[in-house]
Amino acid sequence: MEESPHSDVLILDHGSSTIRAGRMASAVPTLEIPALFAMGESGVRLVGVDALILRADRPLSPVFQKAIAADLSCVEDIWTAVTTKLEIKPSCTGLFLLDNGTAPVSQRKKTLELAFEKFAFRSAVFASTPVSAMYCTGGDTGLVLECGNSISQTVPMYRGYCIGPGMMRTMIGGADVTELLAQRLLSKGAFPGKNFRLAANEAKEKYGSTANGEEASTAVDVELPDGKKVTLQGQELKEPGELLFRPGNFSMESDGVVELCMKSVARSDLDTRAELYKNIILIGGSTLLPGFAERLRAGIKAAAPGGVEVNVQEQHNRLISAWMGAYIIACTELFQALAVRKEDYEERGADIVSKFYLY
Ligand SMILES: Nc1ncnc2c1ncn2[C@@H]1O[C@H](COP(=O)(O)OP(=O)(O)OP(=O)(O)O)[C@@H](O)[C@H]1O
Ligand SMILES: [Mg+2]
């Protein structure tokens, strides 16, 4: 018997640090795969957790550099792992693929080929994480600020539509914050051995914060993979997160997150601005840095016209809100309306993807 169009959907968020996957049976992603690969002894590529298990003796490489796939066959290996673990039969399943919007169209076309030619999914939807995350809020108007691993970006939305001229982006994200912390550890005698950067990333997530005017937190000892301990003072733990707010202080010619928000609002219609200021929605892991939301709110309040109401929404689920928004779309008729069906692809080829991207 023919499956109903909504029988199942695999939702995959291609993050540069974590790939999140799950199907319709659960409203949250059930698989979180580190976006890393390593070559095993026999020349077999290991992806995700399998690569991490090997991390003691094999160098790890990212599956995505920013949003660019180093090698699409890595993506294929990830999908194979996901479909196997989640027991997915692609010919009965729609694919909902999320990325942060920076993947080039050429890559999206190849991904569509992969979806239909190799995996034979029955349909596919492509969407950007900020737009998808808006569906998770239950609202349709606001300024989404995403600070993930690879980039920072703002997307103003009004009554469900993106305000194109107001979309702003910098190529600075959590990976760059980690790199600054790693440099600090190196300057204090750390050895850049295997997995040193993973340890620096862990230290950032555990102890990092932003300079939000509070007293500097106490010093911590960061333990490195070689067993050595390096002490970082409170101020040194706040400094890397500053990159997101003041890239100029680190010789990077780029806007900080406050400027991204201000430019987005300024490029949006006058009569939408008050609602954008009132509903600034944070998504992405780097917005979890302690003090981020307060710092952002204070910066915008200082730069915005007097008397304007500025609200920064800190959803507790902001690491997975894009995935959850996709889940909400997948539960509605909108999924079918947005989907490229396998038959459409066979008739019109991979170029069809440029017409079917939800931004
Ligand atoms: N508690 C935390 N404090 C600070 N940074 C964090 C925290 N939790 C996660 N991060 C950082 O957030 C980033 C991951 O965020 P996210 O999962 O949104 O990115 P992604 O989807 O993998 O990548 P992309 O930016 O390509 O979409 C990493 O740099 C991670 O170190
Ligand atoms: Mg992401």
Structure description:
By secondary structure, the protein is of the alpha/beta class. It folds into three domains: about 10-130 and about 320-355, ATPase, nucleotide binding domain (Nucleotidyltransferase, domain 5), CATH 3.30.420.40; about 135-170 and about 255-315, ATPase, nucleotide binding domain (Nucleotidyltransferase, domain 5, 2-Layer Sandwich), CATH 3.30.420; about 175-245, Actin, Chain A, domain 4 (Alpha-Beta Complex), CATH 3.90.640.10. Helices cover about 35% and strands about 20% of the residues. The strands form five sheets. Strands 1, 2, 3, 9, 10, 19 and 20 form a seven-stranded mixed β-sheet that branches. Strands 11, 12, 13, 14, 17 and 18 form a six-stranded mixed β-sheet that branches. Helix 4 (about 130-135) packs across helix 12 and helix 9 packs across helix 11. The two termini are about 35 Å apart. The chain binds adenosine-5'-triphosphate and magnesium ion (MG). Magnesium ion binds near residues 13, 15, 100, 129 and 148.
Hetero groups in this structure are:
adenosine-5'-triphosphate, magnesium ion
Kindly provide the radius of gyration, computed on alpha-carbon positions and rounded to a whole number of angstroms: 21 Å
Percent of residues in helical segments?
25-40%
CATH level 1 name of the largest domain: Alpha Beta
Largest sheet: 7 strands, mixed
**Arithmetic mean of pLDDT:** 92
> Span from first to last CA?
35 Å
CATH architecture tag of the largest domain:
2-Layer Sandwich
pLDDT under 50 segments (min length 5)?
Answer: 1-5
- Shape descriptor reads globular
Query: What fraction of the residues are assigned to beta strands by DSSP?
Result: 15-25%
Please tell me the total number of domains. 3
